[in-house]
């Protein structure tokens, strides 16, 4: 074992070996993997070995597609077979709603270059003769599904890495990881200490334990997962003989089961509702290639449905039952990336679909380590999507919920109930008392919409317009005609102070910084000139700034801030230490006049002004800006003042028509202004030129991160452009990721959308190839499998000149 190396990867499962291989592929050959036992001796060895390209996040789906295509490469390098069986597979729909979901998944695949096909139940029966077609309404066929040998695949990665120069050390447990003053690491093992520049935690079942060595509590939990192997089946032999091929894979959503051929029989696995966590608080180090006690009673309901849907299974004997632990994050996606505030420490864990995602995880993380950026959009897998608010108990509840729903539909208006309420603001009960239907954003409760009565304060889940439609519309009209009230405590809020604060932000942000008492809108760029943030920045004094952004990206952005902040500059997240409301609409100034302890006239408090002054008796931070595109204000107070502020606003706004509104109305209002949002329109795959944010970046200013790449992107010209469309929708609006058609060809994709109630039209925002963006052209947008006519707008629907915001 070397005494020093550039990177130590902890964990010899498929993910750790993939990371190791991809590092060598990038030219970093002085790298080492340390495994406590043997390769695959965690979850990998007992995995069912299935793979597929389908994922609800298109960016993750791309990485899954890359993973599947990678297997031939590592076989050729290593000479080790992956045992690849590219059989193709069917995803079976037993209900209309599931068929709609498959149609939307098929539509996403169009612009991802996938080759799925929507088929009838009869066609599914022809492809997969073991099903009872009467139990299904249709299916989706994917030619790039199949299964492989977990042992062979992991060793193919490992051998390829070793051929490229990597070292693999087995039977050597990592005992501790300690960081030196210079940011490098001592990795302390049973066989001695290795000095490394970087550490990658790919510990799998032991990732929590490895994280705890540095005081890190990762939000992952292992779940027991069972599948069974049947004895040889004559029906399988008949299919093999008739087709000359093995039986294709199948995923039965209603049965919550997956199945494939295994030798002369079939493998049948399930994600049962009565799921069971394993080793909830600590993972024993002496657990190796062990299996857990089977519990057929727990999966019996799923098996009963499976036997109905696949009648031949009911006649087959069970040869073996496999029950083993796999780790999951609360949302089921991997945890990948650098840890905020910890130099050169990386994680690649929670990858429960290792043979679908392991290659993509290795590619992304190796790019990140070598280049400082993954090279593409991996926000759906980024460990920074979870902040300090996660706890062991919260993770446990959300992982169990995700596991039990793995094959269930999550509708776009469906909020999941586990571990809720978890985080609340001081006015939570007051909003519920106003009949708010609450949502969960990063563990924090926030109002989605307001019902007319407690009995009606619930969502009817659907892909189509639902019971909230009319009520959200009334909220939107209240904002446009009078004044609306929205709690905004769930915005991310930061304070930057210190003698070097101005210089720090000037280097970090491409827009010019504001003068004291003013605000600016600005993106943040990575070195490649692509969007990694979208902020409102206010300057309160020479050395004090406040920044507002997306709560989804709070931990993500704090990681960037802390990595870039020089000595003497303080950057802190204000979190729920600052709570507030937004008021918006033509009567919002009159309401402000009644409560503000200063002049808030058009001249006295201009658009994009920010100041600290009293509202009634309360000290507040006030900015004249809103995301609605209307006249409005953001009002921020300490949490102990929030209830009093709500009372003040309600009492003084009642005769003005003040009405509470929620996140769904805010979305509707921002759509008719063509305002983008972080994680949808603004992501690390787009430049400001493509996102039409060019007015918020300065090409004259120098010295900021990403400037050279930004100017190069400007000179090259955009590959695609963000556009707003009015869609001739029926009873369903876009939700995101639908393909955009022009002249029979897919030329782009939807990023977000919905119904713009105040304008009375259905709206979609999306990116279209630059050469195909033309307001005079005819477009179609595919909604639940049907292409609907769409018109590209040349200006926003509401107040295109922005006069209402500035009035």
From TrEMBL:
Domain Aminomethyltransferase C-terminal: 722-799
A GO molecular-function annotation: oxidoreductase activity
Domain FAD dependent oxidoreductase: 6-367
Residue ranges of domain FAD dependent oxidoreductase central in the record: 371-424
Transmembrane segments: 7-24
Keyword Repressor among UniProt keywords: no
Keywords of this entry: Membrane, Oxidoreductase, Transmembrane, Transmembrane helix
Positions of the GCVT N-terminal domain: 427-701
Listed InterPro entries: FAD-dep_OxRdtase, FAD/NAD-bd_sf, FAO_M, GcvT/YgfZ/DmdA, GcvT/YgfZ_C, GcvT_C, GCVT_N, TrmE/GcvT-like
Family: Belongs to the GcvT family.
Name the record gives this protein: Glycine cleavage system protein T
